[in-house]
Amino acid sequence: MTLDADVDRRLGRFRLRVEIHADPGETVAILGPNGSGKSTLFRCLTGLLPIDRGRISLGGEVVDDPGTDTFVRAEARPVGVVFQDYLLFPHMSALDNVAFGQRARRVPKGVARRAAMEWLERVGLADHAAHRPRELSGGQAQRVALARALATNPSLLLLDEPLAALDVGTRGLVRRELRRHLATFEGARLLVTHDPVDAFALADRVVILEDGEIVQAGLLPDITAHPRSRYIAELVGVNLLRGVGSDHAVALPSGAHVVTADAVDGDAFVAIQPRSVALYRSAPDGSPRNVWRGVVTDIDRQNDRIRISTTGEVDLVAEITLGALEELGLRPGDAVWAAVKATEITAYSI
Fold this sequence. Notes:
With 350 residues, the chain is of the alpha+beta class. It contains nine helices and 21 strands. The chain folds into two domains: 223 residues, P-loop containing nucleotide triphosphate hydrolases (Rossmann fold); 113 residues, CATH 2.40.50.100. A six-stranded mixed β-sheet has the order 7-8-9-3-10-11, sandwiched between helices. A hairpin with a 4-residue loop joins strand 5 and strand 6.
């Protein structure tokens, strides 16, 4: 079933104005900082919040259209939801949790329980049918929540941070299992997440919200290569600078210039991968085209790599090895020189 949503909704001073489309069998990830409108969009799609203007349709059926005074309540919408904390009923068994959606739609108890058992078998939890949520692991609870959402045969599946409640050790395994189970669902799927890894692993496309609007949408590799806001750059781990280009140089507001291999004119973004930033204790020898002086503000270890944040003529994050850090002997507050080759820089018009 196809999702077509043109959503316009005001909440106080905040306004959500987005258009979302998802084809049958397609997973679209919705990312954005806190306050960007993800939760408001979620509530509008589920029917918990009516829109002010626009239209929402699922598989050609209009479920919200203020212009025609059409509004289908949440309990009557063909929408399945997997919540961040799963929200399983603690007093019910896994089987009864999965059967709940159909029972709420007045499906006979025996029919609902048989369908629920089929879903538990699909997600590999038939042996846990009698267990209550407290007897399940985090990954098992997530699968029960997914089975409950799919047991109602929805047109749209909404997943709200479905892996956030899991510890790091089990998240990778559950993520792979979730991807496998999602592949069996033929309807449209929307994944709300803060984690670009989840988006990359589970989604076909990415939509990024900021301040109630879509700032960028497309395939994650394309967004990573050409981020269009500081939030997106931080999300994908890229240095993003904005300035005015003229031929092979971009002038920054600080007065510094970035020499690029790509010619660009007018308002432009400059994207620099942290691994492309070389750090020195003193001005490097030779004639590198991009060299800026700064001060170390933060040192953060991520697995076997070290991320060094600097501020100065150009604020940058560099990523180096532990050996390089020990050799440089850097500490917060130390003066440092950063150098980047022009061929390692991506420049593109705004």
